[in-house]
Fold:
Amino acid sequence: MKRHGTTIRETLKLLFAGFLINLLGTASIFAQSVTTDQLKGLDFRNVGPNRGGRATTATGVIQEPGTFYVGSTGGGLWKTIDYGNSWHNVSDGYFTTPSLGAVSVAPSNPEIVYAGTGSDGLRSNVITGKGIYKSNDAGDSWEFIGLEKTGHIGAVEVDPKNPDRVFVAAIGNGFVPNEERGVYRTLDGGKSWDKVFYLSDTVGSSDLEFAPDNSQIIYAGMWHGQRKPWTIISGGTEGGIYKSADGGDTWKKLENGLPTGLIGKIDLAVSAAAPEVLYALVEAPEGVGGLYYSEDRGESFTLVSTEKGLLDRPFYYCNVDVNPQNPKTVFVSATRFFHSEDGGKNWTNIRTPHGDNHGVWIHPNDTTLWVQVNDGGANVTRDASENWSTQFNQPTAELYQVEVDDQFPYWLYAGQQDNYTTIAVPSLPPFGVQAGSNSYIINTGGCETGPAVPKPGNPDIVYANCKGRFGVFNKKTGQEMQYYVGASNMYGHNPKDLKFRFQRVSPVHVSPHNPDVVYHASQYLHKTVDEGKTWEIISPDLTAFTPETQVISGSPITRDITGEEFYSTIYAVKESIIKEGEIWVGANDGPVHVTKDGGKNWDNVTPKDLLPGGRVQTVEPSPHKEGKAYFAIYRYLLGDFKPYIYKTEDYGKSWELLTTGSNGIPSDYPARVIREDTEVEGLLYAGTDYGLFISFDDGKNWLPFENNLPLTPVTDIKIHQGDLVMSTMGRGFWILDDIQILRDLKNGVDKNTPQLFVTNEAYRLRYRDTDSESVPYFPEPGLTIDYYLPSNTDVAIEIYDDANNLVQSFENKVAAAKEKGERNMSTEFTPFGAGLTLSETAGAHRVVWDMRHVGPWSTNKRRSGNGGPMVTPGKYTVKLIADGKEVSKSTEIKIDPRVAEGGVTTADLEAQEELTLKVRELLTNVRKLENTVNMKVEGYKEAKRVKKKEKQTIEEIESQLTTVSGRYETPMLSDQTSYLYNMLERADQKPGKDAYDRYEELKKEYEALKEQGLNYLGSK
Structure:
């Protein structure tokens, strides 16, 4: 069933709906009995960046020129209906993998869309496909239609006249041989499939094309493509171009004019303007690799260009397209975007919003309208590339890790795939920006690979990595000092010849005991105490170092050595937070080591039952016990998709496998990260290629923890300031705020009585929140209150200060939903805060108290009581009253640290609260008087006889109370009092003398008017 988004009010008021409903029939819930249904109410929020990540496939809708579909490599399938001005995801809740290889709309029926999963660019972080999906309603819903084991899909071609006739190019499993490679055909819209062409279990199909005038003629590119952790294999003697003239029943190899020996990846293009013309971009040895041209439907070919850039990294690119109205206009997507107007003889470059290009779709009826995809996402042009739509509206960033700083509010840091620098975004908005929330994305040194690690105690300093190059970035100056270990360019080397083998994603780790101690890793662990000026090697080679894996990457045709395939390097490093000098490391070829003395002595503690060669993605020393640790190892690149998470409690002398394939995490969900809760031992969080999992019993059992998270790899996890913080490979950063309830669940709760869960502390903040559908999503500031009801019952929540004074109360009987006011154009005031109502249904629920008193009375029932003065920092008690029982929990509201640093004290805020409460009461009294007067005046209009003196008096009072309707009329007492009230609520401060004086003035005016009308209005 498809997940649907919720409004901000639903998110804040009913976030826990349905949580804890299906409790087991025991007196209390113990850790092992927590179920997925009990976690459904917890929602995560996306904090960005709202900037595109790698997209590799795109198509348009002929009948709807502004509609396009784009497939990303880890973020799923997206759709725009307004020429790329906005995008929305259409695959969430339907697809079982976020990786897209091809998408195609039936030309004869725009409602029918086919999506093939599994990107065709076999990077080391590629995510496998899981078959084909079909939509019959233009992407609103999807059904799985088969080919689950085809791995990666290079193309999906739909018959122009028959939407049920579809061909699929299956590249296959990117890592090991498999029989599911080849060309598939369906004649019934995916109900059944036939493999109509197959060469071998190592050769798949990279591309397919119909002849534009005859869909019985099909061309297929066949490719031997495979990836190992230490190399990329692209090419062999079996591949080539094949053609069927009978609808796929039989095939023949096209050889005339094409390379006869090694042949690698192939892409094909045809133009409706010249159906006999076929272009083929062919990876082959130097001199014969390039763009080929046939003008007789493939019977013979001519090599028209050996321009090197066309086949730059063909395993990753290799895409040719042709203008549907002009067969001489050709495009090739590679690192740059190439364009030819003479059939490929001469080339120019077209500037795109981002480099590393993967394809273009050109509208057949308007060839100035394109959608183009690259490593920065998707962009649309309506004028043949003169102008492009933005990529800052696609939350599909691929992030390799997450780090957090210790400022308030904290920021999140990571390397972003194919970004020129690492990035950081805030967990909450630190200040206003006129250009929108994308203005919060900042550069933090290094480059795409990361990590970027802020220095504890000084977040202006960031230790950043760029493909093994260490830098110290200063946010204040924007400069990054360079301190590379070895100071040698590693590109292009055989790793066996390198003094230091730094992987592309080389770890950087700051000691939790000393912020001046920084670790960096090649095959050795390096240490600096002076921010990289000098380095010390504190370990031997801690890798397996198998000579047969130390090779030139990229074979047998195209050399490709960027450090991504360097094998036998340290991939994960972490020092124990409870014992200085206890450091755990893991290598990308399998071994796990530990030192207890800061590197003087090392023990190889790799589990004996662990198969060799996997990549240790994460090491996690327990924050609770010395000698206890976890690690997650990733054997995906060896064709082993099992999750591997291990635990030791004796410094690695013995290990327990926590992922059996039958204890919660499926057997084909590779695990990337494991973290233990910093407060509660045995509460574990695991990130896999297909989402997040949680364990309440130290890994014995796991529960999927998906909720509103999109399907995407969780690459890293941090527990920080009471939040669960995550990075993903395709959907940016996500935060689960206030995880106290998870910690309480670990300890068990009684299902038969009402339960109350309250965060231990909350900060008194002021900022502009955003809608829950926004990216980034900044929720309304407040104190999170979670409660559980065993059955339907009336419920109330009361909040008391430390003197036991009632501050606020809420109950389910208040049916009218509350709302915020709108910004006042003349004063620029925006009323803060909205009331909330409680759900009385069985289960668990979340509300967020905005940390305000009851607001002033209003004739508008939906706003009356909203936006009261903020409470002062201090201790508070939350009381739940339900089912005849009372449950209380204490909490603390703290001053915003930034406000305190600015010199504002709690005493100042107490004075502000005291005065604002007085003004609130005055405003309430003024409004009630105004309402009574207004009602009296309205009554005069209906009355047959009116006393003249009474009417004159009441109208005079009204003129002093109520502002005349019109443009910029003089504000009277009601508006003047509201003005003062809003002025006092704009910032955390001690009120000025004028505010006190003005309060006294307004109070006197009110009392005078009340006295003036006493004889006619009574005591009200």
User: Anything to note?
Assistant: The helical segments are 8-13, 740-747, 897-901, 906-942, 948-961, 973-984, 993-1012, 1014-1017. The longest strand covers residues 885-895. Residues 1-32, 814-821, 823-833 have pLDDT under 50 and may be disordered. The CA atoms of residues 683 and 696 lie 5 Å apart.
